[in-house]
Structures are given as C-alpha cells and as structure tokens.
Amino acid sequence: MSETRFFEQKDGSEIAYRIFESETINNEIPLVLIMGLGGTKEIFMGYEEELAKNQKVIVFDNRGIGESTVVSQSDPITIELMAQDTTEFIKHLGIKKFNLFGGSMGGHIALHIALNIPPDLKLEKLVVGCGFARHPNIEQADKFFQLPEMNFPKTVQEQKDWLLKSEKSYADYLLEHPDKFDKIAEYLVSTNDIRPFEICKRQWEAVKKSDLTSRLHMIKVPTLIIHGEADELVPIKEAELLDREIPNTQLYRIPKVGHSIYVTAPETTIIVNEFLNKDIAVQA
After folding, report:
1. Same domain assignment for residues 206 and 127
2. Is the residue at 217 inside a domain?
3. Which range marks the domain in which residue 185 is found?
4. Residue 148 domain-assigned?
5. How far apart are CA 201 and CA 224, in angstroms?
6. What is the 3-state secondary structure (H, E, C) of the chain?
7. GO MF annotations for this entry (predicted)?
C-alpha cells in the first residue's frame, strides 16, 4: 500500500494523496485521478493499482473529504476551487505534463481543468468516467441533500442492507461478488467519520451551480468517455452529449453497468491504458 502524503496549500488546507507506480512502466506521463462526490481515494479498490502497471498514478482526496482538510467547515467549496486544488497539487509534485481521469463529479472537475489549463501545465489526454457537463438529476439528488443530517450505517451488515437499496445494477453486481460486497461495506463503515455529510452537501451545491455544456467544444485534447448504459444517477445520454460536443472523443459504452465503474467494470482499465498509451489522437 502506498503511503499517504500531504500537500499544504496557501489557505492552510491540506490535500492528502498517494502515488502508485510499478518498476517498469510503458507511459512516462503520470495519470491523476479525481474522485467523485463524497468519495475518498480508497474507493478505487485496486483500479488505481491496475492502471499503475502502465504509468505513475496519483490519487487524492478532495478538500474536506477523507484525509484532506479545510481550514474551517464554512470554507467555500466550488468546482472552480476543487479544480484549482488539483492543478496546484500537480504543480507541487513538479509535474509539467499529465493525463487526467475524473469520475462522476471528478469528471466534471476534470472537464473544468481541461477548459482552464494553466499556461505552465500541459494536459495530454482526458478520461471522463460516468461524468457530466451538467448534472441531470438535480431534483432527485436535492431531496437527499436537503436532509438536515445523514445517519450513516454503523455496522457492515447495516451498510450492506443500505447498498442493496441503491442502483439496481450495482446491487445485483454486489450480490454476485460477495467478496467485493464485504470489502466495500467495510470501507464505507470505516470512512463514515471522514466523509462529512456537510461537505458532501456543499460539493453537491457546487455541482448544481456549474454547467460546462456551452464550452465543451473548446476542449481540444483527446478525450475518452466511459459510461455504463445502466447508470441511473448520470444516464448514458450525458456521455452522448460529451461525445457530441467535445471535438476529439471516443465513447466506450458498458452494457449492464451502472454508475460505479471502478467497482463493477474493473476491465475498463484495459481500455484506459490502451487509450493513454496511444501515440496518435483518438479520431472522432
């Protein structure tokens, strides 16, 4: 297991991160992974380690989540700020050229970075997993995030019962893979205290205020879009929108898979590595 390191920002907040790399790599350009809403860097469940067989992989917790901190619980959280956290953190590591993979909200942050890349950094390729230009289910999610507080399950069994009420394709997959089911439930219970509901709510408010649709045509880097056809949280039409509006894309649709592709579609690491290792741009 890679050790957790910390980057202290100018505002006093800290970004917790881990670096994964193998002794022999095919791609010299590092890959930075951006986590989705409320998730921590541990949720990749080995996905990052598989990608690290081909290039250095860097994972981190967004501000206020996991082992990353905010100075105050009332500090602002916006898509712009989380994107800035990412680029400042990349500069801190001395990286000039990099690839980016964002999942869900992390995909939205990655799109924002691609549209606002600092002049001293070069984004080579972009991967968006179960992502969106504008979140499609605002009303549905609003009902959840308007709750005054969230009483997370306190035992592994309670967590498993709760997971079975989630997205159908996800629940079906967990029942078919009991070892992963146990591992994910244990992870969620063990990280309840470092996934503050208040921070998750404010991440959601940031998502609601951000719509990148009209600017997608300005993204020029080769872009791989990976999306489950059974995604109930961010429907496949959102991936089709990205594919239609971004000039240089490849859309990889995963049949019978929902929103949690790191868990339910680990084979997509092959697609990602093939895309990142290509010397020529992906053709639209």
Report:
1. yes
2. yes
3. 153-194
4. no
5. 29
6. CCCCEEEECCCCCEEEEEEECCCCCCCCCCEEEECCCCCCHHHHCCHHHHHCCCCCEEEECCCCCCCCCCCCCCCCCCHHHHHHHHHHHHHHCCCCEEEEEEECHHHHHHHHHHHCCCCCCEEEEEEEECCCCCCCCHHHHHHHHCCCCCCCCCCHHHHHHHHCCCCHHHHHHHHHCHHHHHHHHHHHHHCHHHCCHHHHHHHHHHHHCCCCHHHHHHCCCCEEEEEECCCCCCCHHHHHHHHHHCCCEEEEEECCCCCCHHHHCCCHHHHHHHHHHCCCCCCC
7. hydrolase activity
Q: How many CA atoms lie within 13 A of 60 on its CB side?
A: 29
Pair of tokens at residue 14: 């800290």
pLDDT digits (tens, 9 = 90+) for 224-259: 999 999 999 999 999 999 999 999 999 999 999 999
- Under the banding of pLDDT at 50, 70 and 90, the label for residue 1 is low
What CATH number does the domain containing 211 carry? 3.40.50.1820
